[in-house]
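Form 7-S
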Amino acid sequence: MSPRRWVRAAAVIGATAMLLASSCTWQLSLFIPEGVPPPAGAPVPPVDTHGGGRPADQLRDWAEQRSGTLEIPVIALEAYAYAARVAEVENPKCHISWTTLAGIGQVESHHGTYRGARLSANGDVSPPIRGVRLDGSGGNLRIVDAQEDVTDTDGVARAMGPMQFIPETWRLYGVDAHNDGVVSPDNIDDAALAAAGYLCWRGKDLATPRGWIT
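Output:
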């Protein structure tokens, strides 16, 4: 997730996250002015953020009730909601909402389904989703990386996974959100929770216009 792509994601959150301020229905005719945070969406029920297995599974009923209306896969919706709940526990002043994460997930990868990719029951995205070569062409930044497993053969990086993290950012914010011992940008649980950490960096309050646009 690069800052440039974040701007793109924020621009369409009004279409993805006006979702359900309260009623769980699309409200595409409503407009969110620039710099105004999206509504929080339907409340996420309490979960055990230190539970074993895949903790996001605790939100199965909640996600299944909303998945069809929102056109967001159940696994992805669980991941967004769980990440927001963890952020609420660990960084309550950030006020990040699951709707924000869903908006980014929609823009970056269609919730992990871009170009026929599929979400497994544990949140893994297959085949892995990679962005364009960040070689400086087409208005993109040029980003090179020393780690061969995250770059092309010439060292040029690509954004990775359902939330499209660039490799360096992933190394800073990547996290294992579903207890499999692997920190993977290609797992939507890991990616959603890492995105929450990235967005809440340095004490941002995403419920305020200042926190939202900086």
